[in-house]
Inverse folding.
């Protein structure tokens, strides 16, 4: 069967796959990685797939629709996100108008949280594949082929759909993939379908490849959408041999790549496996390209040292707050002292840290905002980002703030600023969302414009010339946002 997979156009350099989808101030553009895994999985099982990433390729809806129409697929898979959902639905329905008999299926975190509500947005929509969707899409394609285009999807787990009478039906959930080695190497999917140069992470060397070595997060932070909505809380791992195979593939097929980013929610949740992977990479002589990973602030020194020896360069860490009570409120499961010890050990091991700080959490006050800013300066990570809380449907935080009546609008278009930057739609009695966004602007300025930080980065660039290009590009990209206010308008309340 011919299948088209589309990351649809929305805003320039818009990242649906980010945990907080937006146009990033750092210039970051995520790979459509989860969609890419589905593309590879469908191809592995014999389907012919056209894969378009419109934001990366700079394609308009007309460009995308024309290419898909010429391909003439029977199934169209469209990625989605909360802020772009109305645009995503419009794109799917516009393409459906042009191809007789086309079946449309939406995927992603937003539609996984609100499948029925999404299908109600437009009568032309056919289905939503919720949660982890590779096997669901495979069964959906098989059903379409067997039924000659009929829409009887009653036996397919993991979907909501419109039956022949137009009624919305939600089938039961599908079990998560147990053997992740069954998935293709996502880097091979990139090689076949995408140009890698547009993708950029502000904390990484460019160009980079982004892969997954495991799915699911064993921790239960109240705000994090991916484990709560898409992939669950059990950390399922690829075999070490499979990960080493992918490192070797990247080394041999992408001579231009300067870094590999491991996008598991928390690679370091399994310290023993991290050490095993590091040893295996060294043994396979697959450490020619430095790599980075998402981590919690609780990794022991020995594990970090072993990872650094295998060319691990950087951890991306969600510190979130400098107030212990707030960390407890959001079920972060760490302490300020553990974080301080982690930072000392990371420096000793030689691993750089990109620190993430989120404000507006449960219990936040004007005083705790300043506490977090002081803590960020004290920790002094290599790079840092400050962003207001983003409460996505399907998360514990979304339910909490909705019950409080503190979500100022249910118009998902307002989840971003006019320029597509991170905003917030949460205002509590102590702090409005405008205060949160303005604080993040100030925190960013105060963190990056410290004289000591400039000196530190200059010394770093001299000692490690390979870092100079990354630092220069990152500073050029973020400078306009250090000088100007993010928020230009106030969202109109709709609830």
């Amino acid at each position: 069967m011919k299948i088209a997979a589309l990351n649809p156009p929305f805003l320039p350099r818009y990242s649906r796959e980010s945990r907080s989808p937006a146009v990033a101030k750092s210039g970051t553009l995520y790979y459509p990685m989860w969609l890419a895994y589905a593309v590879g999985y469908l191809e592995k099982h014999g389907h012919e797939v056209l894969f378009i990433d419109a934001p990366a390729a700079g394609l308009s809806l007309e460009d995308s629709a024309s290419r898909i129409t010429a391909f003439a697929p029977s199934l169209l898979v469209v990625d989605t996100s909360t802020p772009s959902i109305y645009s995503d639905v419009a794109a799917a329905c516009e393409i459906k108008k042009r191809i007789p008999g086309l079946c449309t299926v939406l995927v992603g975190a937003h539609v996984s949280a609100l499948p029925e509500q999404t299908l109600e947005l437009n009568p032309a929509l056919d289905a939503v594949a919720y949660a982890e969707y590779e096997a669901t899409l495979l069964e959906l394609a098989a059903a379409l082929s067997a039924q000659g285009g009929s829409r009887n999807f009653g036996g397919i787990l993991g979907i909501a759909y419109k039956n022949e009478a137009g009624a919305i039906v939600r089938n039961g959930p599908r079990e998560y993939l147990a053997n992740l080695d069954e998935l293709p190497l996502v880097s091979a999917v990139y090689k076949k379908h995408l140009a890698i140069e547009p993708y950029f992470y502000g904390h990484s060397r460019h160009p980079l490849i982004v892969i997954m070595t495991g799915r699911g997060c064993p921790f239960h932070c109240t705000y994090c959408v991916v484990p709560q909505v898409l992939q669950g809380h059990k950390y399922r791992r690829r075999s070490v041999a499979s990960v080493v195979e992918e490192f070797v593939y990247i080394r041999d097929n992408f001579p231009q790549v300067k870094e590999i980013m491991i996008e598991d929610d928390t690679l370091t949740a399994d310290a023993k496996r991290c050490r095993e992977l590091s040893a295996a990479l060294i043994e396979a002589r697959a450490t020619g390209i430095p790599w980075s990973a998402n981590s919690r602030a609780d990794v022991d020194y020995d594990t970090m040292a072993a990872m650094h020896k295998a060319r691990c360069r950087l951890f991306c860490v969600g510190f979130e707050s400098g107030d212990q009570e707030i960390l407890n409120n959001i079920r972060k499961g760490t302490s300020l002292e553990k974080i301080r010890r982690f930072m000392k050990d990371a420096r000793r091991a030689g691993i750089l840290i990109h620190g993430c700080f989120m404000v507006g959490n449960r219990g936040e006050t004007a005083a705790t905002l300043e506490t977090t800013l002081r803590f960020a300066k004290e920790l002094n990570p290599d790079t840092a980002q400050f962003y207001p809380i983003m409460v996505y449907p399907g998360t514990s935080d979304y339910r909490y703030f909705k019950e409080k009546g503190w979500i100022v609008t249910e118009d998902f278009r307002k989840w971003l600023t006019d320029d597509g930057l991170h905003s917030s739609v949460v205002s509590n009695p102590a702090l409005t969302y405008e205060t949160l966004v303005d604080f993040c602007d100030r925190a960013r300025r105060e963190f990056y414009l410290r004289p000591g930080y400039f000196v530190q980065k200059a010394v770093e660039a001299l000692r490690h010339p390979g870092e100079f290009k990354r630092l220069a590009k990152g500073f050029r990209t973020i400078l306009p946002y250090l000088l100007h206010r993010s928020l230009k308008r106030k969202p109109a309340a709709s609830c």
